[in-house]
Amino acid sequence: MRLSSDFFHLQKTEHLFFLRTEENSMDSTTQARIKSQLIAEIDEMPPLLQQVAKYISDNPSDFGLDTIRKSADKIGVSPNTLVRMAAYLGFDSFDALREPFRQSLIIAADKGVDPDWIANYRAKDELGREHANALRNEVNIVDRSLHLLTPETLRSIVRNLVGADNVYVTATRSTYSLAFYFQYIGRMAISNMQLVPRHMGNAIEDMAELSKGDVLFAVTFRPYSAETIEAMRFANARGAKVVLMTDSELVAPNIEITDLLRVTTQSTHFFGCYAGAMAVLDCLLSHLVNAGGESATSRISKYENMRQNSGAYWRPTLPKVRK
């Protein structure tokens, strides 16, 4: 049987696609191995290499694209420090270390096109375009944050929180609002959940009784709170478990994390967007209420009755009608 040239062209194309796919898979595996090694060994690295390790872990795409000098400038170290990191990881040169990141680099494109309602705003004027960009960013960070919330991560966190003797929730400054919301709702599902610091105190002072059977739930995003990091180290020293919600796999050295809730917070302004973090917390709260069973349902009902009876909710006064 005679085969056409189109058939051979198709075979060649499929073969090349297979080879490229296999190469990308190998590069992705190498990149994942490098990041795993950086995370596992960061505590033992010299301070400058710790800075490099965190940058590579947080910015793999930039690291794959930038020159050695540009990466060094972004990190705040000398190019020689990047060469030292390459040697530390077993590579002959900086280019050899960067190559897996270059080859497996995937530009994170938005899924599909804007929905009609965002596209309509974008088509109006300059303000409409800016507004559409902000809206698209919010949709993206919620999508990406929820994508990172795997069933395995949820299962472990729920098990540790429900099984803890006490749950301490801590955060500072802008992230304090997230911690407050999580504890305010979560305490109805888990009665032993408390927010620290209380009032204007220090988180560690309010965790004086922290022990091995407890869990610290911490929230911090770049630039990371020194007080929250110290609270996590204090929990490690007491043998308590630490659940951390943050934007990176590497926050600071000398911290042992039991469960990591990683979310995306990039924004179109100078501060982080917390829509993704809030969506993840809402999902976690849903699972905590389910895990609490009838006791959680009963506790929620009691809270609601208490609020109703104490006049916590505003009620309109209906006008009296004369007969």
Please explain how this structure is put together.
The protein has 2 domains: 96 residues, Orthogonal Bundle (Arc Repressor Mutant, subunit A), CATH 1.10.10.10; 166 residues, 3-Layer(aba) Sandwich (Rossmann fold). The protein contains 12 helices and 5 strands. The chain is 58% helix and 7% strand. The N terminus is likely disordered. With 323 residues, the chain is of the alpha/beta class. Strand 3, helix 11 and strand 4 form a beta-alpha-beta unit.
In short:
It is built from twelve helices and five strands.
How are the secondary structure elements laid out?
Blueprint: H1 5-41, H2 47-58, H3 60-65, H4 68-75, H5 79-88, H6 94-103, H7 116-122, H8 126-148, H9 151-162, E1 167-170, H10 176-189, E2 193-196, E3 215-219, H11 226-238, E4 241-246, E5 259-262, H12 275-309
Parallel strand pairs: 1-2, 1-3, 3-4, 4-5
Helix pairs in contact: 1-6, 2-5, 7-8, 8-12, 9-12, 10-12
